[in-house]
Amino acid sequence: MADDAKRHIYSPHPEGYSQARQEQYKQYLRKLQHNFIDSWNEKIECNASLGDFEKIKVLGTGAFGVVYLSKYTKTGKYYAMKVMEKEKIVKMKQIEHSYYEKKILCGLNFPFVVYMKYFFKDNVYLYYVLPFVAGGEMFSHLRKLGKFDETTSKFYGAQVVLALEYLHSCELVYRDLKPENILIERTGYIKITDFGFCKLVRGRTWTLCGTPEYLAPEVILSKGYGLSVDWWSLGILLFEMSAGYPPFYASDPMRIYEKIVAGKYRCPSHFTPDLKDILSHILQVDITKRYGNLKDGALDYKNHKWFKDIDWDSLLNNRLQAPFVPKIRSPGDTSYFENYDDEKVKESPVCLYEEEFADF
Ligand SMILES: Nc1ncnc2c1ncn2[C@@H]1O[C@H](COP(=O)(O)OP(=O)(O)O)[C@@H](O)[C@H]1O
Ligand SMILES: [Mg+2]
Fold it and tell me: Where is the Protein kinase domain (predicted)?
């Protein structure tokens, strides 16, 4: 087999992921962490302006803004431009989160997460320009198919494990894992987007944020929490990908929270014993028993039976065949995204909230 050929059959090491390999991998992560901290301590200046871009189409909308497919006119390259209205950020008390999002996006460098290519602000808005991930949201694919087979869930889930391990090694808690924030690359691999709730935490934090179905019990119980919340949401994601619906569900968020803190869920009968087993180690209300949060960290995932087909180093290097590869017809192809109405652009002759965003 040619050295750079994709492997069609996953061929893991028979002995699993050894402590020694994990030590070596952690050294690599430490390098990435240093790079992240260097970027964090640097003041990064705006490096473009709105006039450099042509806005083409709305790709998605969220609580604070709109994401557009945009073309950088100097190079003709396509990007996703997240545009957030300063007024909305201020009214929803998200100034701090928007600073974090910018600083974090500027420092990220990992295969399965997006990063910031350009950013700038004007009188009304903040702009984050990210690589355009053309295969659309995992959410759309999941709803279209109903559910994924376990091979597919495993392929995506394993990348999320590596992404969380990377973020956590940078002391970042992500806090918004869900299929809407996971995008599919043209290669069929994932990119996690939306760092709007991501935060650098040393120790504990208290803010209630995230999405009801994906909230960890310790967030709901306002106990103060840390990186463990992301591992919980990975459990919800593995369940939702394989079942087509989340494990704790109700139409009223309060009922969802009651179910989450009780920690009781039922797996569909088609789940394999290995999937049920890994879920039982993740959806643990007691964080001292939750996988990812134990002394071996992410190694517990890398060596669990459900993931035994995954060769983690090949996965990191995009050398496993993806179960689904989107058909992208041209660089700016948006056919994997829903259609949205164009947003009306606001203008102002004076700079709004200049002080609040002075350091942006
Ligand atoms: N880099 C990207 N490439 C393609 N689409 C993107 C990208 N980033 C975000 N989107 C689309 O825009 C949507 C909203 O972006 P997101 O950052 O999640 O905003 P919000 O914080 O408002 O949820 C995403 O769910 C996705 O559909
Ligand atoms: Mg989002």
Answer: 53-307
Q: Which ligand lies nearest the alpha carbon of 192?
A: 1
Active site amino acids: 176
Ligand 1 within 6 A of CB of 79? no
Domains along the sequence of the chain with CATH: 41-134+329-355 (3.30.200.20), 137-317 (1.10.510.10)
Q: Per-residue pLDDT tens for 274-308?
A: 999 999 999 999 999 999 999 999 999 999 999 99
Cβ of residue 104 lying under 6 Å from some atom of ligand 1: no
Out of 57, 59, 114, 187, give the residue to mutate to test ligand 1, the one with the largest number of ligand atoms within 8 Å of its CB.
59
Least Cα distance to 112 among 163, 182, 154, 156 occurs for 163
What pTM was estimated for this model as a whole?
A: 0.95
